Structure formats: structure tokens, C-alpha cells
Amino acid sequence: MTDDDERVVPPDVIYNIFIRTKPQHVWDALTKSEFTRQFFFGRTVESDWKIGSPWKLLFPDGRT
Amino acid sequence: MSKPEFVYVIFIEAPATKVWDALTTGEQTKLFWSRYVQSDWKVGSRVEFYTNDRSRLSHDGEVLECDPPRRLVMTFNTAPEGNPERPSRVTYELEQRADETKLTVTHEGFPPESKVLPGISEGWPRILSSMKSYLERGAPMAMTARGRAERGES
Question: Domain B6-151 belongs to what topology?
Fold first, then answer.
């Protein structure tokens, strides 16, 4: 179905990691600020995670 | 130069010497890799990867560079498993920061349509995730033993 203008370009980076926990916990860790604050250098995420919604990564001082 | 086909970076909270030992000592690789590695790690020496009970050679290679605990390069030959594909090349690079080590595993030099590349692309994340667990919490991941059971290995 793809023509020359819509060629699928492989992504530049794919990273796989296996984690001993349930998918829901990994999902929460990536999408909820109370978790990201702990491993993402204090940064928090802001989004309602609906398709088309914006998402922001905020520094501890509130900068984006 | 073309890009290497597989590069995996992982940070492990352990000194580089511990990471190096885990990767080069059979008594440790058997725990998180389900392979017993054997070599004297001298340039030109053979590297052998056996099943944990050492009844069967799984793959082997040759040491090309060895600079503990920083850099190790070896060939990777799957002929013992019945795959006659020409050997590829594995590089471990270890870089100690504060309390952690940055480990980069590069696996390259595959022929076109390689059958080994898809296998190692799934294998390295499993091995290195389990090694991180082993080094940080003292036990490999349960999936390592489960994989052995599924393959009928002890």
C-alpha cells in the first residue's frame, strides 16, 4: 500500500528492556508524575493521554 | 562505514569490575545468561559458550581485544548450533561513572538476511536485563530459569 511518498522509514532507536512487574505498573511509571518525578530527574509529566492531546515534560521549577 | 546492526546501552549500579566479572565468568553467566562462558580472555584465545550443564557447546568465538574492565571484543560464531553463517563481532564497552557503570554492547558484521540478527536482538535485552537484576539485587530475573525449562535445559 505504500508508494514512494509514504515509504516507511525505520525508527532510529528502539530500546527493549525486561522489567519484573506488571504492564500496568510500567504504564503508570511512564505516565504519572508521582512516579516520573522519582526517576526522570525530578521532572513531571502533564497530559490527559488522550489521542491528539498535548503532553508536557516539566522541570521541577515549572519550566517545560 | 555502515552503522552497526545492534547497539544496546544499559546503566547498572555496580562498579565496572563487577560488571566485567559477571560477563566473563562462567559461574556468573550461567545465572543470568543460561550459558557457561569459558576463556582465558587472552587475545587470540577461544571463547566458548556452553549450556549450563556444559554438555553442549552453544556458540564460540575468538578474543580480538581485551582491556579489563573497559573493553572486550570477540567474534561470535553460531556454527556449533548448526548455523553455518559467518561469524559476527561483539564488543563490550564499560564506562564507570559515580556508583554506576554504563555498558554498551555492540553486535555487528552480520551477512544480509542474517538468521542470527533477529535472535540476538531479542536475546541481548533478556540477558542484560537479567544481568542488571543479578548485579543490583543479587538474583537474576525469573524469566532466565523459565527459558531454560522451556528449552529443556537444566
Answer: Alpha-D-Glucose-1,6-Bisphosphate; Chain A, domain 4 (3.30.530)
Query: pLDDT tens track of chain B, all 154 residues?
Result: 577 889 999 999 999 999 999 999 999 999 999 999 999 999 999 999 999 999 999 999 999 999 999 999 999 999 998 888 999 999 999 999 999 999 999 999 999 999 999 999 999 999 999 999 999 999 999 999 999 999 999 8
- Domain ranges in chain A? 8-58
- The interface predicted TM-score of the complex, written ipTM, equals 0.81
Q: Which residues of B touch A20 (CB under 8 A)?
A: 133, 141-142
Q: Which of A17, A22, A40 to mutate to test the interface with B (most CBs of B within 10 A)?
A: A17
Query: What secondary structure, in 3-state letters, does chain B show?
Result: CCCCCEEEEEEECCCHHHHHHHHHCHHHHHHHCCCEEECCCCCCCEEEEECCCCCCEEEEEEEEEEECCCEEEEEEECHHHCCCCCCEEEEEEEEECCCCEEEEEEEECCCCCCCHHHHHHHHHHHHHHHHHHHHHHCCCCHHHHHHHHHHCCC
